[in-house]
Amino acid sequence: MASKLFATLAASLGPAQASLEFKWMIQQSPKLQHLTDMVTRRSRGEPLQYILGESLVLSKSPNLLTSIPGSQPFGPLNLLTRPPVLIPRPETEHWVIKLADRLSASSAQPKSLLDLGTGSGCIPLLLCHLLPQGSLRAHGVDISTHALQLATDNATLCAIPPESTSKNTFTVSLGNFLSPSFPDDAKINLPYDIITSNPPYIPWDEYLQLPRSVTAYEDPKALFGGPTGLDFYHAIARLVRRKHFLRPGAIVALEVGHGQAQAVERIMRLDAHMRDTEIWSDPWGKERTVLAHL
GO terms for biological process (predicted)? Predict the structure, then answer.
């Protein structure tokens, strides 16, 4: 039976990738019934991170977390993944590490950070891990209760508490930053020193061309950024130009999609009234991040 399951997986992924993934599946769940379900789901295109991530237990599988992709490596962290929350990408990891190097934070003067559309919590949690302890108070907002639960679970996994006087902290709240009533109806504490976001930025024509492994499993609300892909950047600009939303000298760091960096930079300058903008490229040479200073 195992050989038939492997043949099914190989027909979908190719022998080399199937061999690797089948080994991970057996390692995590050797029972034939569970294995059959995993192979069926993977053959239909479901991301492996989701399939394996569902059965990981926070306090009982620390070795498993570092050895198979039921969790997603993100810098030195291993983060849980669950559908339909967006799986953290390496291009995001790259700019977050670069941002950590740029920030001047100390426990004597802690910085406050708001992550808009936090998803798995990957951005603020990595910054909490990289920056000096006691120097960062991070808060994530998302429209999805699934995302907020996953972000909270990842904070627990990474030993980042919601409250502490000596450690970096991370909290979450439900909120829709496209709504005209945001942030008045959200549980956030203004003003902020740092705004981060990897918002939905895929325009409609590109969304229709995405592979099924993305569109069938990852939340479209975390991907589709409106007809041009820029809806959420305009919303962020409206927020940060509000009085008392940012502290003097604040930084806004935004991930952008292919070909959007120049347009988002203009939005930050003209609509958000930010100064000293810059564009960072990812390791593959694509303009990936817009950084703006108040």
Answer: methylation
